Amino acid sequence: MSDIQKQLASVKKRISEAAQACGRKPDEITLLAVSKTRSATTIAEAVAESQQHFGENYLQEALDKIAILQNPTLIWHFIGPIQSNKTRAIAQHFHWVHTIDRLKIAERLSNHRGANSSSDSPPLNVCIQVNIDNEQSKSGVGSDEVLSLALTISNLPHLRLRGLMAIPQALADGANHEAFERMNQLFHAIKARGDFSHWDTLSMGMSADLECAIQHGATIVRVGTDIFGQRDYSTQFE
Ligand SMILES: *Cc1c(COP(=O)(O)O)cnc(C)c1O
What we know:
alpha/beta, binds pyridoxal-5'-phosphate, globular
């Protein structure tokens, strides 16, 4: 087996064990393989192992790989910060965006999705990014701003609001249970209102803390390093 085969199998095993440990079904959790800085060849190795969901942070790098791979069965998730001048290409080439943190970006994505697509093209799936630990260095809206942004986004015709995403602070002494649980509470409080018909996604947990995220309700875990190895940022675009 190649390294990627082995590592992918091991991450999938971690996901099912974490799910079972808290009484969840492993198939409630989607593995998003974070492929930033990885070549199209590397991604193809994971595709050969039936990996379908890929996450990218840098637009130009992602567009190049999407064009090389030309595989309509793959599902591309944009998980990086979004500048206004990138919204057209993101709306055109991605299936999901996890990092909505302001209305203007959501409006632009909806407009471009509507303008570019033929009438049978589905809405763009989006999550609101929450800055759950109120860190200066991180994007995302505060917990108290999520509901009003969600209500406005849900009126945009070419977006489908799916839920919330967060990158909690990494703690030196272990996984950030408290932040993941706050996300879980926020996610369920909004779900309970019943305003949003497709509210089913809690995107959180990475290589180091996916078990903890699953325990606190994650439905998508975003894993790079533990599938593909350490990243080499010298190969990065942009
Ligand atoms: C890079 C990245 C990941 C993956 O992190 P690993 O620690 O390599 O698993 C997950 N989410 C986001 C938003 C990222 O930018």
